[in-house]
Amino acid sequence: MIESRCGILCGECEYKEKMNCGGCVHITKPFWSDSCPVKDCCEGKSLEHCGLCGDFPCDLLNQFAYDKEQGDNGNRIEQCKEWATASVRRYACYCGLYCEHCAVKAKIEPAARVLYDEMKKAGFEDVINFIPGGDGFWPFLKSMAEDGLCLSCKEGSGNPGCAVRLCVQEKGVEMCAFCKEYPCNKFSSFLKATVGYTVLEQDNALLRDKGWDAWLELQAKRRAAGFTYSEGSREE
């Protein structure tokens, strides 16, 4: 579970109970200042934590991590690395697609969080039932903002009848790229009908040849560039 944007483990922080702090992931304004530049930067890029950023570890994070008074000698940076690896394996689909590049996670869920926060601050939670359809809309928006619409096929989301998913699960391999029979007919058929197929073969080859670290570095750079499978990079 991600506890903070910068890598601090909130469960071990003395201010959790002392200041009744829910952690930067769950609060709008930190108790120690009007804002936190690391939190603002991370959330401004729609990232779950700093370890998923293409610029990680940046000068700003290093400044906080090695601060003489409040720093932790880089422990939070190492924690972000662990979270990043865990996130990759969680959001790396059986076929090789990366959920973080889906428009739902990259655009719709962040937009839902902004809309939910703004509507809540404006008091809509108290009057939403008086608006036609509001009693159904508000729980949906809240769930989308707090929990998200989709996790990953490894977490049970997506099409339960996906031929690639069923094949990988049956063979007991982590992903298609690690299968001895890759690329097979099932994968080739899937490839022809998949958004993002132009990079999928390249990504799987990278994963097979150079491993998770190289694959993670590539995905982080894409996220920083605003890449989604449906639109490509914003810079293109």
Order of helices and strands: HHHHHHHHHHH
How large is the count of helical segments? 11
**Total number of β-strand segments?**
0
Mean pLDDT: 87
| Proportion of helical residues | 40-55%
Distance between the termini: 34 Å
Q: How much of the polypeptide forms β-strand, as a percent range?
A: under 5%
Determine Rg (CA atoms, Å): 20 Å
Q: What would you call the structural class?
A: mainly alpha
Low-confidence region ranges: none
Shape by Cα distribution: globular
**What's the structural domain tally?**
3
Major beta sheet summary: none
Give a description of the structure:
Helices cover 49% and strands 0% of the residues. The model has no long low-confidence stretch (mean pLDDT 87). By secondary structure, it is mostly helical. It is built from 11 helices and no strands. The chain has helices spanning 15-18, 37-44, 59-65, 75-91, 103-121, 124-127, 134-146, 163-171, 185-192, 197-210, 212-224.
